[in-house]
Amino acid sequence: MSDKFFRVKSRFSKLILGAALLLTLTTVKVSAAIKSYQIKPGEVTFTLDKGLMKIVVCKDDIIEVKYSIFNEFLNKPSLVVNNKWQPLTFKFEQNKSAYIITTKKLKITVDKSTNAITYSKLNGEVITAEDQQNKTMAAATVAGINTYNVSTQFNSPADEALYGLGCHPVDTLSINYKGRNQDLAIRYMTGAIPVLLSTKGYGLLWDNYSASNFYGAEAGNTKFKYVSESGKQVDYYFFYGPDFDHIIDLYRVASGKAPMYAKWAFGLFQSQDRYMSQQEIISVKDNYRNNHIPVDVIVQDWYYWDPLPIGSHVMKPERYPDPKQLLKDLHKANIHGMISIWPVFGKGTPNFDALQKMGGLTDITWDNVVTHTFDTYYDAHYPKARDLYWAQARDSLIKRYDWDAWWIDQCEPDNGSLLDARKQSNFWIGKGIDYFNTYSLEHTKGIYKGWRNDIPGKRAFFLARQSFAGAQRNAATLWSSDIFCGFGAFKSQVPQGINACASGIPYWTSDIGGYQYHWTAPDWSKPEFRELFTRWFQFGTFCPIFRIHGKGERALFSKNWDADTKATLLKYDKLRYRLLPYIYSLAGRVTTENYTIMRALTFDFRNDPNVYSIPDQYMFGPAFLVNPVTEQLYTAKNAPAEKTRKVYLPGSSKWYNFWTGEQQNGGQTLNVPVPMDIMPLYIKAGSIVPMGPDMEYATEKPADKIELRIYPGADGTFKFYEDENDNYNYEKGQYATFTLTWKDKTHQLVISDTKGQFKGMLKKHTFNVILVNGEHGSNSGITAKADKVVSYAGKAVTVKI
Fold first, then answer.
1. Which sequence positions are flagged as catalytic?
2. 678 to each of 146, 200, 495, 659, 681, how far by Cα in Å?
3. Taking the chain, what is the end-to-end CA distance rounded to the nearest angstrom?
4. Structure pTM?
């Protein structure tokens, strides 16, 4: 990536304004009283004064709603929901004013006069309800095409908070969508994911792929609505939790599980815009390994093909004389390689010609300001084009040279000026206005399918600049794109990451340090940029994926860093690697239980309204309360004398300062000192945190010796996960788990029997159990003396600590 990707600001502003105007057309609610109904297995179809409405009971806690002003529904498969539901039984009854559908978990009441739906618990307590002016369709003309704006509106009580909707780098610094609007059109530097979570205990997925908007402050902030600029019907899914974890579980049951990443993917990614040669990459490898700095991935970004056209998939031999040897050298050093490959093609290449011949190119162009050409997107919605695109990349680069991961850049069909995709009416699947948001979803679908078929022994890992609902099943990590090197941009990353993960996409990352500074590289040797990078690196350590990228030399061995900066960076890098047993176990839960690692505070403290609008704190798994320092405190001219940040400790739990072991009560706000080497971390009482040895790469040492930190003050559990670290044997059940349980009153640690097995599985673990008490067991280093050493051979054991 480079400044070639940045759009002129006025252009971008006009683009957003244009979309906003399109979605504010006046709609008129037609008469929608229910005239009759028909019951079929698992569903009820209502005939209205004009049109139809269908309620499908997908599961007892998943309801699909369709509405149309026409006399039939679209017969189209969902691009997002891929579950083939089995019809469920339900109770159906009616009274004078409503029809009532009752499942084992929900009561769905349908108003006869307005068709408005109310979702309630079985005891009658309302969870949420559509507004009386609820589902609408209004004729509209978009990009010269006759279509319909579609909308759904819900009531929203004053004490409701709303989360999700993806990652929006031009967003405000808020995290709660109650009372604010959000553009949900996929465009440059966005991830528009139409999944919404409510503190009232429900989630919503809007199954529409056109440019859309969310309006969170309707009718004096008492309602919210979702509006799509094009559609032939309203189609949404309702999920009942009430816990956020269960809502996300239901969303992934509907749209697909996230596959397991290889263990190396949870180590450090070293990337730069851009490495220019094979020798430069080897020098980066050598500097990391020779200086004993932990790293797992080195990335080759864009324009390794220069001066050939984009899409040639050729590594210029003058600069990369032997790419296969390059990967062998990386692998010999236990480092993996990721390469950037784009979905756009310059004319005059065999790949362009082959795609054009089979009808696999679109009319959508990307203005390449480096070569002054308008390059062409392939049609990711066309299955045969997806297959050919994969085959070209496979044979030219991926399998040919043994790359381990794929950076999917520029996967939004937008040239930054006129929204070509909305004008494009010849996607294979349909009109561009109807499939504006699903390009990256279909693009990653094809790549994932190809990888699984042709590289079966290596887990797929894709880094994508765009995301949409369902992308988690394609092994796609959302990256927040080319962002500015500044504290303002950094500060906005925190709520973006939290809301991206609250949208059901489990893996998110940002360019640590930011991508560029006023179109170029900042001077990283200056104190203010050292401070920025240090704080961003601390935050990155506690993101699902840990990744450096951007303009200018910023590797951890760089001469740009003074001794103190290097020491701090190494401290957090080592901490990330020590936490791999914890992180990899959480990744196991992502795949097996649909868990979320980077957690909005409402996942764990939904009943504490004090957390609802905190944009810069989150849980990293069940134990860590992470509090990034996003203000410039040390090198700013007006820096405060007292260097602190506010930290709210949620709920009624006791909390431990990770660095000092000091205990604090929950439900209070602290002013925490933040010297440059400290990002405040608090651990919830009852937590069990497994920590490994110091390592230079993720699989360097077996997990046979684990420091097990227990934070007393409450009961707690932790499920430990292990597998072969790569390949897909875990899908055949070849993985192992055991549960660690802390009983606080009796000070007993209970370790369950191991369930499952896999090839190469350790026969014994040694746990150095640490009962954290003040400095004992605090900080990131290895604790000198264990409170108890437990030898565990897979059979249940109970230990008094």
1. 409, 412, 482
2. 57, 36, 20, 8, 8
3. 53
4. 0.95
